[in-house]
Design a protein that fits this description.
- By secondary structure, this protein is α+β, with helices and mostly antiparallel strands.
- The chain contains 2 helices and 8 strands; from the N terminus they run ββββαβββαβ.
- It is globular, with a radius of gyration of 15 Å.
- The protein starts with 9 loop residues before the first strand and ends with a strand.
C-alpha cells in the first residue's frame, strides 16, 4: 500500500546482552556472520520492547532493556543498505530467563569476550557499536550516544 508523505527511515533495534563480561551474539543465516540479536521494529512497537522481542526470537533469552546505549545513523558506516535509510537503536539488556535457542534467522547463539569477537555482520553490528557498548560498561552514568 502506498503511503502519503515523505519516505521515512526504518528503525533497527539491537539488544546488547552482557553476561560475565561477555556479549551475546547470534550467527545470522543470511550472511553466516555474527551480530547482536535484533531486527526491524514493527509498526506500533515501543523501541525497547522491540529489542526485547527480537532478543527472545533470535537467541531464546528473555531480556529486559535497561538503558539506551545509542542511536546510530545506520547509513553512515561506509556500507550501503538495501533500504533508503535506517536508524539503529542499541539497548543494554539484562537476561531474565531462557536458554540459547536458534531461530529461522539464526544458526548459533553464543557469548564472546570483547577481545575475541567473531566475524561481524557489519550492517547489523560493527566495531563502532561495540566500542560504544564498552564505554557504557566502563561508565554506567554515560549518556546515550547519538548522531
Amino acid at each position: 500500500m502506498e503511503q502519503p508523505g515523505y519516505a521515512t527511515p526504518k528503525v533497527d533495534v539491537r539488544a546488547a546482552v552482557i553476561r560475565d563480561n561477555k556479549i551475546l551474539f547470534v550467527k545470522e543465516i543470511a550472511d553466516g556472520k555474527w551480530s547482536m540479536p535484533g531486527g526491524w521494529m514493527d509498526v506500533g512497537d515501543y523501541p525497547a520492547q522491540a529489542a526485547e522481542r527480537e532478543a527472545l526470537e533470535e537467541s531464546g533469552f528473555v531480556v529486559k532493556a535497561k538503558k539506551l546505549i545509542g542511536a546510530f545513523d545506520a547509513n553512515r558506516n561506509g556500507r550501503p543498505l538495501e533500504f533508503f535509510h535506517a536508524v539503529k537503536l542499541i539497548y543494554l539488556c539484562e537476561i531474565i530467563s531462557g536458554k540459547p535457542t536458534v531461530s529461522n534467522e539464526t544458526s548459533e547463539v553464543k557469548f564472546f569476550t570483547f577481545d575475541n569477537l567473531p566475524p561481524l555482520s557489519q550492517n547489523r553490528t560493527n566495531k563502532r557499536h561495540i566500542a560504544e557498548i564498552i564505554e557504557h560498561l566502563k561508565d554506567t552514568s554515560r549518556q546515550a550516544f547519538f548522531e
